[in-house]
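quick one: 2-acetamido-2-deoxy-beta-D-glucopyranose bound model?
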Amino acid sequence: MLFRKPSPTPPLHSLPSTTSFSKTKDPHNNNNKLRYTLFSCLILASWILFLHHHTRIPPSTDTCHGSGPLFYIHTLPSRFNLGLLQRCHKLNVYTNMCPHVANNGLGQPLSTPSWYATHQFIAEMIVHARLQNHPCRTWDPHAALLFYVPFYGGLHASTMFREPNHTLRDSLAVDLVHFLQSQPSWKRNNGKDHFVALGRTAWDFMRAEDGADFGANIFLKLPPVRNMSVLTVERQPWKGANQFGIPYPSYFHPKTLAEMLTWQNSMRQRARPHLFSFVGGTRKGLEKAKVRDDIVRQCGDSKRCVLVRCASGGDSRCHDPMKVLEVMSSSKFCLQAAGDSFTRRSSFDSVVAGCVPVFFSEHTAYTQYAWYLPAERGSYSVLIEEREVVEGKRSIEEILMSVSEEEVERMREVVIGLIPTLTYAHPNATNLGFPDVVDVALQQLSRRVKEEQLISIS
Ligand SMILES: *[C@@H]1O[C@H](CO)[C@@H](O)[C@H](O)[C@H]1NC(C)=O
Ligand SMILES: *[C@@H]1O[C@H](CO)[C@@H](O)[C@H](O)[C@H]1NC(C)=O
Ligand SMILES: *[C@@H]1O[C@H](CO)[C@@H](O)[C@H](O)[C@H]1NC(C)=O
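yep, here:
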């Protein structure tokens, strides 16, 4: 049975018995009899109306399906989440995050309804807001299969990138672990049924004790956290056995299936005059991102490529979500080169735009988002070996030209079919009608916990 928020509806047995009203006080007075019968009908009708309004019989899409995963949200002291937002201008050493944390993390609305200028590292807030309104939420920890820890770890990590004192940099993470370990629900399974969602990459929480300090803390290295499932926009491909990739948020946050279908159809019908495009910048002196130099050069040299350079003083379209979408949705292929880390938000923008992503590393998507992407890589994407590009063996244009038109259309259809599950629906959607990022994560987490046979709840 589902545990729901206490509803204002009185239980049925406490309702006044309607039959008591049909008893006539004076059996000899027919007028009275009629009056009382009418009165009783009225009372009955108003109770039916009352029940109709107050016993929300949710539409089928607003229920937690079947044996659906039931999760409980830990009540954390606000220093672990919403409290951090009070200093939103200091959350990130590079950007004022205040406009980005607005609207439950969706950011500022764009001119088209359901579209927002969503920040790339804000998934943790959107996940939180969506789970708070989710039909599979339970208020009873004993009925829960999963426990969600609403920690805004990414927002906190970025406030501490420049903190030289490691004890201080790590202190909130250590504090959280102490808090969790004191909870009865943690003790039940040593945290194995707990999960946290992080809007930044795993690297930001896995400081290496030897080697260069890039500002990371040690959250994901704490032994209790290694018992939890960690959802992150980029997992550490080799050590992240308990880390699961979740998509970066894009800009589309629909509330209904109808909005989603309309968008998918418009992407199917788009004319795509450009063979490929690249939206991004180069990274000076970053070995990992060397391929970007070649991509920018090759794209710039090709008549079939649209280049939107993102650099200070670069193309202004780069920072305008709708302009980026415009470029991508008029291209057949969208190049997704690793940058500061393996993954990019842009891969998900490209899917939303119905543009087939071209990867240069298997860690940009294939080893990251196994819950979300088809196992058959070639069905929705192209992988070009980085060294082929860097060593100038083959041109990107040549490779993409060799894909037949039918093949491109087939891939595009798969990409467009992926849009719903790669979308963060509007957190206040009550009748969504399709599984989004958060629904897929809940299904997979619950499968994982059940497989480990952690819990047997009736
Ligand atoms: C969702 O609803 C709540 C309560 O009405 C409101 O405060 C919040 O701003 C809404 N979220 C968004 C993103 O519109
Ligand atoms: C680092 O911060 C901790 C906690 O505030 C403090 O106890 C310690 O003395 C600091 N270490 C240094 C080297 O400043
Ligand atoms: C992690 O889980 C294992 C197995 O349930 C348990 O033995 C271990 O003590 C847990 N570690 C922590 C730090 O809670």
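Residues 103-104, 106, 427-428 surround 2-acetamido-2-deoxy-beta-D-glucopyranose (ligand 1) (CB under 6 Å).
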